[in-house]
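This follows on from our talk about sequence and fold. I would like you to pick a protein and set down its sequence and fold. Go ahead and set the record down below:
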Amino acid sequence: MTNDYQQFPISDYLSCNLLKDADIQNLKSDSKILSIGVGIGLYEEYLINKLNVPPSSLYCADLDLHKKWIGQRGFQFDIRGLWPNLNIKFDYILFGQVIGVSANNGRSVPFEVMTNHVVHIVHQAKIHLKENGKILIYDTTLPTAISDQVADARPVFLVVAEELGGNIVRADGFGSQVEISF
């Protein structure tokens, strides 16, 4: 696996099975997803071209948004600051390889700093989430970006869920794949 999202292998996304079959069916029906840290959008293209998710269900965001995603369903902003008004609420917000590396430009930070960083980002995302929406995170950089503990981000997400009133529906053994419902 690579930590550079733009070169993040699509096979890694597919093997983690972050979006379940029911989620894909919801996207085909009328649900909306915001994919953050889209890079060149390999996973997003897969959703459209292979799983037949309508492009109207998919919105993309990145700090440096690729030109093919610029338009009414593309947003360019820095997740570390206050997010702009996106004028839409989403059923799903998907984070790729962006949370861990955005904490301190890819350098490790203490647990408390990472926790505050993730609370801020998830709080901003939650503002744009519909009631009963889900935040999905697949970020293998996050567990190793915490300098003062073993590579495990699960304790970060326990704090996030508690502070923001969410429920951790699932989390892998290191906290690199997490689903939080609100």
About this structure: The longest strand covers residues 129-138. Residues 1-6 have pLDDT under 50 and may be disordered. Strands lie at 33-36, 58-62, 74-76, 90-95, 129-138, 167-171, 177-181.
